[in-house]
Amino acid sequence: MKLYTYFRSSAAYRVRIALNLKGLAYDAVPVHLVRDGGQHLSDAYLAVNPSGLVPALEDDGITLTQSMAIIEYLDEVHPMVPLLPRDAIGRARVRELAQIIGCDIHPINNLRVLKYLVKQLGHDEQAKTDWYRHWIIEGFRSLEAHLARNPGTGTFCHGDTPTIADCYLVPQVFNAKRFDIAVEAYPTIARINDLCVELPAFKAAHPAHQADAE
Amino acid sequence: MKLYTYFRSSAAYRVRIALNLKGLAYDAVPVHLVRDGGQHLSDAYLAVNPSGLVPALEDDGITLTQSMAIIEYLDEVHPMVPLLPRDAIGRARVRELAQIIGCDIHPINNLRVLKYLVKQLGHDEQAKTDWYRHWIIEGFRSLEAHLARNPGTGTFCHGDTPTIADCYLVPQVFNAKRFDIAVEAYPTIARINDLCVELPAFKAAHPAHQADAE
Q1: Residues 6+ away with beta carbon under 8 Å from B50
Q2: Which residues, 6 or more positions from A61, have their beta carbon under 8 angstroms from its beta carbon?
Q3: Nearest CA of chain B to the CA of A210: how many Å?
Q4: Is residue B209 part of a domain?
Q5: Domains: count for chain A
Q6: Are A55 and A7 spatial neighbours (Cβ–Cβ below 8 Å)?
Q7: Is B141 part of any domain?
């Protein structure tokens, strides 16, 4: 398996965690989002993923994009160390928690959106930072409420083993900390993150531990 | 089943299509996103969904949010008229296509994001419209490329029966047309949309046919 990745991309970080949790070996192909005017926009990479976004996974001659689709695929094809619970309601809840991050926070703070704020709309660094923080704070308020109110929350986001939701939570907390969000204001998020980041699968997926880290 | 919905919400529109395709009856509970300062931000609705977003589905005493999680749940619990193919690669592809819309287009054009552009950043209607159109054009370019290059594309986004990807495509095309995007520039998207909108399940889910339509 070949994973097109960028050390700091949180969508790629999620997939790296999932691969590591399942103990699946892969070749990391770095795609630099800044260098060369953005290697993700090169003809070579657009032939891999016409969306021009990382990650992309090549497996068995097929190419998959979109982190959630990739992780669900890995979970179906390699069911050992399942990342979704066995019951339909549990699975729905894990997907819901992941999507609060994957749909309500992360896309709005994506690099290309931040670039639009600066280039097309003429905003400065401060306005960009305020924007970034705003959507994390909104999203964490919501995610914390979903986690805190539901008895399904265990030592991890759902139950006592890592699921897709945890693969999403840790990279988002990493981004939050980069932008000085006080994560301890969201006690359940902070508690689960603190537990996850000590696990080898999460550690090995950390941006600082990638071959393309700067 | 009870669906908290707003006639024009494209996330709610997706779930209505899925419910109709499966022939599942439901009670629509309208949540007006503008009236009363936004009924989705009321204490009553935040008790249903702390994220303050539609849709939410109540079924069997549980409440689910996030359109993708809801539709996958419906597909698991009511497997008649499946909305995902049987093979893992096909399922990954359908999820990927849906997420190009659900992650790369729709969240950036969500009402709360448009509000931030106007209120916090002081932009006018024109800048807001340019923003909205930009992310649809970017996303449709990408979606069209994914559809056009893959032999899995059939009369529908994947194969010859509707899947979750079609539940996502039709509401996004509806939004595109509201903002005068020339959808015919994306021939595969336009062809599939034209086919879908004639089907009863899609017709009944259309914003104009909802009890809360204006």
Answers
A1: A141, A142, A145, A146, A149
A2: none
A3: 25
A4: no
A5: 2
A6: no
A7: yes
Any domain includes A68: yes
**B1-27 confidence digits (pLDDT tens):** 999 999 999 999 999 999 999 999 999
The tokens describing A145, both together, are: 């409420």
User: Does the interface predicted TM-score (ipTM) exceed 0.90?
Assistant: yes
Among B residues 66-105, those touching chain A with beta carbons less than 8 Å apart: 66, 68-70, 72-73, 76-77, 88-89, 91-93, 95-96, 99-100, 102-104
Look at residue A37 and tell me whether its pLDDT is greater than 90: no
Nearest by CB: B103 against A52, A100, A102:
A102
pLDDT, tens digit, for every residue of B165-206? 999 999 999 999 999 999 999 999 999 999 999 999 999 999
Residues A77 and A129 in one domain: no
Specify whether A187 is located in the same domain as A104. yes
